Amino acid sequence: MKDIAILGSTGSIGTQALDIIADNPQKFRATVLTANHNWELLVKQAEYFKPQSVVIADENHYLKVKEALSGRGIDVRAGNSEIAEVVKLPDIDIVLTAMVGYSGLIPTINAVKAGKNIALANKETLVVAGEIITRLVKECDVKLLPVDSEHSAIFQCLVGEDRKAMSKILLTASGGPFRTLSKKELEEVTVKDALKHPNWNMGAKVTIDSASMMNKGFEMIEARWLFDCHPDNIKILVHPQSIVHSMVEFYDGSIKAQLGIPDMHIPIQYALSYPDRINTDKYRLDWSRISQLSFEQPDDLKFPLLHLAFEAIKKGGNMPCILNAANEVAVQAFLEERIKFIDMPKLAQYAMTHGSFIKEPSLEDLIETNRETVDLSWKWVEKN
Predict the structure, then answer these.
(1) Average pLDDT for consecutive 10-residue bins of the chain (384 residues)?
(2) CA-based Rg of the chain, rounded to a whole angstrom?
(3) Is 164 left (phi over 0), alpha (psi -120 to 50) or beta?
(4) Contact 237, 213 (CB under 8 A)
(5) 9, 118, 163, 214: which has the highest count of C-beta atoms within 10 A?
């Protein structure tokens, strides 16, 4: 029995993780559930799974959650600071970090310091502070298990292999909903268009990042830290079918790939059950319905955020943190229809050019960088 803390239990990853826990009650127990604003779903989840603790980040909803769960023996907390504290509870075996964006950083750091294994679905944690996180993981002797389908694929391809024999990571991308559009057509896309991903069912932030290919840039940075691979040895391939989730090329020319249907239940389940696999008839790939598996190069001219991600990780220091903060503002501003889709890379470039660069940032420096960049980015939105 593994006790799981799910940070972001009401989001796409969190709800799918709870599906797996519900299907495998003899293997997993939901010990901690946290949510940002969706207090009603959090209450329903708590009533069903009976966790030890729940945390609602939005303190305005605390009394509603407290009252709804009164008499059930569940510890109810509120605020981001409590999310960062609850991960330290002694009964937790694995912390699934499924919070969106920068907000996942401090809880992840606290969980690692408390000796908890991490099932990482919050890629921004490694984008912002990859060097700090990977060093902490080694110092605290905990496992960092990837949940993103691409990183889970790479991880699975490397099981049993000598990491030194890896020569290249082939990171696949669906291409998103705008893969076939011209640069001119991208000027007119709407929020509704961008939220229609052809293959995956994800939250709004990740779906927009997929449409802009920022998601793939962040996944490249995440892969750099997870697998100690130089960015020059990470190649992005657009694979519209989303069946090959990523590949690893070895020095002898051999290539290993992990395939499966585009469903996040599979990598979440693998991260929670590792090193074992769960026997299930769900999530099967029907080969009779697959007519082709195709691959193509990404178009950096149409999707410049991908190039900016490579630029940021090669610059190093706090530059990936600047890019992440600017992108979070860009996505929110686009969702609020305050900027166009094509404005998002312009905002990111502006922040990277005008932000304060720090070559060897501390955690405190990164926290200040995020605050400064968010402020800088919103001023750009207001002016443009």
Answers:
(1) 97 95 97 96 98 97 97 96 96 94 91 97 93 96 96 97 96 91 92 79 82 95 96 96 96 97 95 94 89 93 95 97 97 95 97 97 96 98 92
(2) 20
(3) alpha
(4) no
(5) 9
* Residue 328, number of CB atoms within 10 A of its CB: 21
Q: Report DSSP letters for 210-251, one per residue.
A: HHHTHHHHHHHHHHHHHTT--GGGEEEEE-TT--EEEEEEET
Q: Could you give the CA distance from residue 216 to residue 237 in angstroms, rounded to a whole number?
A: 10
Decide: pTM greater than 0.85: yes
The size of the chain, in residues, is 384
What DSSP designation does 299 have? -
Among candidate residues 264, 225, 243, 240, the one with its CA nearest the CA of residue 98: 264
**Closest to 165 in 3D by CA, of 254, 250, 255:** 250
Rounded to 5°, angle at Cα 129 from 248 and 16? 65
